[in-house]
Structures are given as structure tokens and as C-alpha cells.
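Feature request disguised as a bug: please show the residue count (67) next to DUF2093 domain-containing protein in the output. Example input:
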Amino acid sequence: MLMSSRNEPARLEYGPNGFRVLRTGRFVHCAVSGEEIPLEDLRYWSVHYQEAYASAELATQRLTQDA
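Example output, currently without the count:
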């Protein structure tokens, strides 16, 4: 189960098909907006940057910054 009783951010390792929990927590922060993303709602991340995004729009915004 991904949920934890800790009301702290989780630390994750992002892979191409999922993520691995390195430190338990209930959420991660969006790298663009800073918004808390509950682990059960996490759908967008970058394997290259190892960071999470709250939406497809924010992921696209971040990933096109360097282009």
C-alpha cells in the first residue's frame, strides 16, 4: 500500500513505469507549483529530473523549459 500514517512528504525514486517509495509519506510536492500531490493521485513525473508534477500541463511546462 502506498499510503502511510505520516503526514509528511514521501521521498520517491521515479522510474519509467512507476515509482519506488524511499521514505514513507502521504504526498509529494509538485516541482512547478509546490502543490501537495497525494501519492494515490500521482500520475505525472520525470525520470530524468526525478520530480513530480500535479498535472499534465505543469509537466509539459517544466519539460519544455530546456527545449
